[in-house]
Amino acid sequence: MRQASAIARRVAAASVSLVLASGAAACADPKGNGAGSGGDDGEPAKGGTLTVLNRDPQTDFDPARLYTSGGGNIPSLVFRTLTTRNREDGAKGAEVVPDLATDLGRPSKNATVWTFTLKKGLKYEDGSPITSADVKYGIERSFAAELSGGAPYLRDWLIGGDKYQGPYKDKSGKGLTSIETPDERTIVFHLNKPEGEFPYLATQTQFTPVPKSKDKGTKYEEHPLSSGPYKVVANENDGERLRLERNPHWSAATDAERKAYPDTIDVRSGLDSSVINQRLAASQGADAAAVTTDTNLGPAELAKVTGDKELASHVGTGHFGYTNYLAFNPKVKPFDDPKVRQAISYAVDRSSVINAAGGSSLAEPATTYLPNQKSFGHTKYDHFPAGPNGNPKKARELLKEAGHQDGLTITLTHSNAKDFETSPEIATAIQDALKKAGITVKLEGLEENDYADKIHSVEDEPGLFLSHWGADWPSGGPFLAPIFDGRQIVKDGANFNTGFLDDKAVNDEIDEINKLTDLDAAAERWGALDKKIGEKALTVPLFHPVYKRLYGKDVHNIVISDWTGVLDVSQVAVKQS
């Protein structure tokens, strides 16, 4: 993503359900399914109320404004899209599958034209039919300035998208001519460049149908018309309290993904993280049938839970496509010298970094930029093998070759936020490791907003800093392109190409991979490109996070996919009293 407003969403990708939603995901039951919630056969039963306890309110509950991966967690209970994530455990859950559409779209030979057909019998909560014109209008309203906040890809990919300002300013009444609806069930997209991963993009909530006659602009979020299994019956304090009840016109016959077991979903936000975990651990009253979609167990909490066999059986474990790393600015000395960057790569002690991140239960070592999952095209490599504890001897040799035989003094910029990712604990671990290689590290800690502004500024970007990146969908494309495509360097906004790499060979390969509609073949190419870029030592991959989240004792049918890394609320059932 390349919008400044999206920085916070990126940073929160590890914990906020709007973005989340990931190694194979697992949970308390090795099969990924809890005990059944009713019936002698152990099958999940319909009924009851599922409570969701969260820190962050579900603000901007308008499909145009949400920035989601795979349709989001809570949002996808209300908003259906052309495609969606596969609601299965582990690697199978990283696949994209049809939702409103009959298939994943039919691309033209060069992947610049995509055609989708809607399923028959689709209805809104009021019983009216869902049409292709509604999908087109739902996309068009996401271009309106007052409804900004969603993913920027459509603005870049659709012909004329860079100039379109949304339906409220469209005097022609024709909307985006690059989206055609020849009949009520067909929608055709015309792109300005080949995009083989368009089916992934079609999982974003901007592809939610919105009938023009029901649009209320910025007030639409108060009661968006449901196309999913649940409808909004209450939205208090801008998403702090959401109450969802069954959409009587949703049909499971048209929706193979959402199970919709509970009768009611009660989302309560604005809670402290420690309070959420305390309530889930106690599992008293309504909290026994509660989950969280945005709160992890911290190191101290995890230690307590691990020592309690009953509590440990109610912990879901998952992996999301996310990498924490050291970033270099090669325009700042001495990081303009590849040997210095390589020396630092050798000097890093990943064991100490992982301990600072909460231990091996919450972080896994990384030597590749792409996450270690098949869907990303993960290709194993370690260009600067340092072992688990670093290789200070090799680092000193490289520093000597670079003319720094007496050592080196550098500055490492980090955030003061206690996030166990870019925070002081991680920075101190790096500082201690580099000292063994003769590198003196001065720490520059910044408040969260100042930190984000500085590391994404072309003019102010520091020479060395802690950073991280999460995927908009489980593929190498949204991981590598924003960081390493030279055409995505942004000089007057939020820049994510922190190494300022503008290599024609890399840019060309990105274009060639984007032409592929065979997603497995594309994944293999993304992995090979990651390995090639890794040789340039523009980043030092440190670790991939692991998500540990409690759920109440009466919550069953746990599904955690590699797409989101967290419990999927569309699958859970609750025990009936």
List the helices and strands and how they pair.
Blueprint (H helix, E strand, L loop, with lengths): L6 H5 L37 E5 L29 E3 L10 E3 L7 E2 L5 E5 L14 H10 L11 H5 L21 E5 L2 E5 L7 H4 L28 E7 L4 E6 L17 E5 L4 H10 L7 E2 L7 H8 L2 H4 L2 E4 L3 E7 L9 H10 L2 H7 L6 E3 L26 H10 L6 E8 L8 H12 L3 E8 L1 H8 L8 E7 L6 H8 L19 H11 L4 H16 L4 E7 L1 E4 L4 E2 L16 E2 L3
Parallel strand pairs: 1-10, 1-11, 15-16
Antiparallel strand pairs: 2-3, 4-5, 5-7, 6-7, 8-9, 9-10, 12-19, 13-17, 13-18, 14-18, 20-21
Helical amount among residues, as a percent range? 10-25%
Total strand segments: 21
What's the arrangement of strands in the largest beta sheet? 8-9-10-1-11
Mean pLDDT: 91
State Rg.
Answer: 24 Å
Shape: globular
Q: What percentage of amino acids are in beta strands?
A: 15-25%
Rounded to the nearest angstrom, the distance between the terminal CA atoms is 46 Å
Tally of individual helices: 15
Ranges where pLDDT stays below 50 over 5 or more residues in a row are 1-41
Largest sheet: number of strands, sense, barrel closure: 5 strands, mixed
Look at the helices and sheets and give the structural class: alpha+beta
InterPro entries: Peptide/Ni-bd, SBP_5, SBP_5_dom
Signal peptide: 1-28
Protein name: ABC transporter substrate-binding protein
Region (Disordered): 32-55, 208-232
Characterise the protein shown here:
The protein has 577 residues and is of the alpha+beta class. It has 15 helices and 21 strands. Strands 8-9-10-1-11 form a five-stranded mixed β-sheet, with no helix packed on it. The chain has a four-stranded antiparallel β-sheet with strand order 4-5-7-6, with helices on one face. The radius of gyration is 24 Å and the shape is globular. It starts with 6 loop residues before the first helix and ends with a strand. It holds the Pfam family SBP_bac_5.
